[in-house]
Write a structure and sequence with these properties.
The complex is a heterodimer of chains A (about 200) and B (about 240).
Chain A lengths: L23 E2 L20 E5 L5 E5 H5 L4 E8 L4 E12 H5 L8 E6 L4 E5 L9 E6 L2 E2 L9 E3 L12 E7 L6 H4 L19
Chain B lengths: L3 E12 L2 E7 L11 E7 L5 E7 L9 E6 L7 H7 L5 E8 L13 E6 L4 H13 L5 E7 L11 H7 L3 E6 L16 H15 L7 E7 H13 L7 E6 L3
Parallel strand pairs in B: 7-8, 7-10, 8-9, 10-11
Antiparallel strand pairs in B: 1-2, 1-6, 2-5, 3-4, 3-6
Helix pairs in contact in B: 2-3, 4-5
The chains are: A mainly beta (about 200), B alpha/beta (about 240).
Chain lengths: ~200, ~240
């Protein structure tokens, strides 16, 4: 612990085991975006997975909606230090999307409308750990929160849950995405407080 | 990079609900204009709370300046705005952030839109622009409730003038006496009109401007949507949002 700040006592007196270190709970849903919010209609939206050989699996919105849809209740943790408990999403599991993808590569890059990217190891997307979500709190996902669809990887800091997602590409090595090049951690585990590039 | 113990060496009452803290940070080697620092407070029982604050100081300044707006239900800001005194110490880490930044080697015109306390990193860009001798045209559109809530009130006009630019203040609720400008919330038409006037002033053949927008989420959404709708390339717009949506 650091120096004591005279006269500071804080508000959240009880340690909440659901709260990762350095986070505080908010009931709001703040927005972290690097630029303007892209305006993508469901009709033009598409999602693809491209493996290391260049083979592409592609889904339109309608094809995507015909896949098995799961409900996900989870806490989310933003690198800017807020956490939000008990959020409710609907989306398609990455296990479903990867079912017919042939790959030996261990890393993915998530690509978003607007040109943003973020890197996630493949193992963090499989085994029920990640979804492409299109509904939040029973409503279509707002554009400023990533609608029509965003990646949902709740066990990592939330910038990894790429907004306005349009595809994943497979890579043999862990390359850095847009957010990681600009100072955020390559992996982003909230429980290890991996916020910035210099965190171990 | 690690947490450092900073000394509060000066405090300036910015508005009735905001203060600027001048911090001396061990090993501080300056920052990029637009970056932020995290400030951490520790209670006697070890409980800690940390928040991020944009720097308003110039990139090369020896002291780091942050402006803190009082959040009525906040945990850290009430202490920083009402509690802390010159001579007290705080823990800080930074500078942080690699995207919402301006570098003196950038030669294209700079267009900045700030809402409320969101003007702080834009003032860092202004100050850095002046200190570096950069000659790129710069303009600032600043939306604020009323005159007493204007951050950097005494410096804003002279800073923008020194940078060879212009500040346009949009008062949303109350304007100063004899105010000639418009009153009320910014809308898409007003933002587009301001941006077009800036483009015209830069002259034909000027490079496409870089735009920096900082403020509450709703404000940033409105301003960036307006510019994109008027044909501005989204990749030239950098944004920093705060508050819930």
């Amino acid at each position: 612990m650091g120096i004591v700040t005279p006269g500071f006592f804080g508000k959240h007196r009880e340690a909440d085991p659901k709260l990762p270190p350095g986070q505080y709970e908010t009931k709001d849903f703040p927005v972290l975006s690097a630029g303007p919010t892209p305006n993508i209609h469901a009709g033009e939206w598409q999602f693809s997975i491209t493996n290391e050989s260049g083979d592409v699996k592609r889904w339109t919105w309608d094809e995507f909606m015909a896949l098995p849809i799961e409900t996900v209740d989870t806490d989310i943790h933003c690198v800017t230090r807020w956490s939000k408990f008990g959020t409710s999403w609907r989306g398609v599991s990455l296990d479903t999307l990867f079912a017919d993808v042939e790959t030996d590569a261990g890393y993915t890059m998530a690509h978003s409308y607007g040109g943003y990217t973020t890197n996630v190891p493949l193992e963090d997307l499989l085994d029920g750990k990640a979804w492409v979500a299109f509904e939040f709190g029973g409503e279509p996902l707002d554009p400023e929160h990533g609608g029509p669809a965003r990646l949902l990887v709740p066990h990592l800091y939330f910038w990894k849950s790429a907004k306005w997602i349009t595809g994943l590409t497979m890579h043999e090595t862990d390359e850095l995405g847009f957010w990681e090049v600009n100072g955020y951690h390559a992996y982003g585990d909230p429980w290890k407080e991996q916020r910035y590039y210099y965190d171990s | 990079m690690k947490w450092e113990v900073a000394d509060v060496v000066a405090i300036h009452e910015e508005t009735p609900t905001a203060r600027t803290l001048m911090l001396r940070i061990p090993g501080w080697a300056g920052a990029l204009a637009g970056q932020h620092i995290d400030i951490r407070l520790t209670a006697p029982d070890g409980y800690q709370a940390a928040r991020s604050y944009s720097l308003s100081s110039a990139a090369s300044d020896e002291l780091a300046a942050v402006s803190v707006e009082l959040m009525p239900d906040g945990e850290v800001s009430p202490y920083l705005v009402r509690g802390i005194s010159v001579g007290d110490q705080l823990e800080v880490i930074g500078p942080l952030g690699g995207w919402f930044v301006w570098r003196p080697e950038q030669q294209e015109p700079i267009r900045m839109i700030g809402g409320g306390s969101g003007v702080a990193p834009l003032v860092s860009i202004l100050r850095t622009h002046i200190a570096s001798g950069n000659t790129a045209p710069v303009s600032l559109l600043y939306s604020v409730r009323s005159p007493e809530f204007v951050y950097f009130r005494d410096e804003l006009e002279s800073l923008t003038a020194s940078a060879g630019g212009e500040v346009t203040i949009q008062y949303t609720r109350h304007a100063p006496p004899a105010w000639q400008g418009t009153l009320g919330r910014l809308d898409a038409a007003r933002i587009t009109e301001w941006a077009d006037a800036g483009t015209a002033a830069s002259g034909a053949g000027a490079a496409a401007p870089s735009t920096y927008i900082c403020g509450p989420t709703r404000f940033v959404e409105l301003a960036s949507d307006a510019l994109v709708a008027s044909g501005v390339d989204p990749m030239t717009i950098r944004t920093e949002r705060f508050g819930g949506a």
